[in-house]
Write a structure and sequence with these properties.
The complex is a heterodimer of chains A (114) and B (111).
Chain A: E1 4-7, E2 10-13, E3 19-25, E4 31-38, E5 42-51, E6 54-57, E7 64-66, E8 76-78, E9 87-94, E10 104-105, E11 109-113
Parallel strand pairs in A: 2-11
Antiparallel strand pairs in A: 1-3, 3-8, 4-5, 4-9, 5-6, 7-8, 9-10, 9-11
Chain B: E1 4-7, E2 10-14, E3 19-25, E4 32-38, E5 45-51, E6 56-59, E7 62-67, E8 72-77, E9 86-93, E10 99-101, E11 105-110
Parallel strand pairs in B: 2-11
Antiparallel strand pairs in B: 1-3, 3-8, 4-5, 4-9, 6-7, 7-8, 9-10, 9-11
Classes of the chains: A mainly beta (114), B mainly beta (111).
Amino acid sequence: NAGVTQTPKFQVLKTGQSMTLQCAQDMNHEYMSWYRQDPGMGLRLIHYSVGAGITDQGEVPNGYNVSRSTTEDFPLRLLSAAPSQTSVYFCASSYSGPNTGELFFGEGSRLTVL
Amino acid sequence: GENVEQHPSTLSVQEGDSAVIKCTYSDSASNYFPWYKQELGKRPQLIIDIRSNVGEKKDQRIAVTLNKTAKHFSLHITETQPEDSAVYFCAARGGNTPLVFGKGTRLSVIA
């Protein structure tokens, strides 16, 4: 099993550009989520999904969109990038719902918005 | 929603000493409390977790204690080694909401 795979690992954008961070897992996890990590701020939840076709907002959802058309994939879209979205993004998944079981993280995607 | 406070933000200990990191949570309905370790440039990984029906759990040199009355839980690392140097995150789940993380503690073990 590859676990949780994120692409790209690094990305530089200009303000106003759009992009999609890809996340895929091969563990048949129902629950998937996106976090951003900023210095001194810990891991903050952006969006999450408890299954295909279902998504919900986390703590910091503004400026981001998600969709969950399959169990395996959970892409994160930035529609118009802003410097405040410079961060390291982690995708994470787990068995069952969001409240039980170990969260497995991807390797992270470092995004810089100029 | 749930709010998790973590202290201290940085911690330096001599190799072989113990390290303690403390967290408090706000939602009395929380019943799952994991701890994650993140080495520099790596992804967070679960090192130990505890559920609300248990007061303490140990795994070799690490242990977690939970006080539901006071709504706080702690990570204890004994006989620290240089490879324990990392950022540690506590987390809690509040009822049916997703996992909420503390802001992290950067532990440095000085040889």
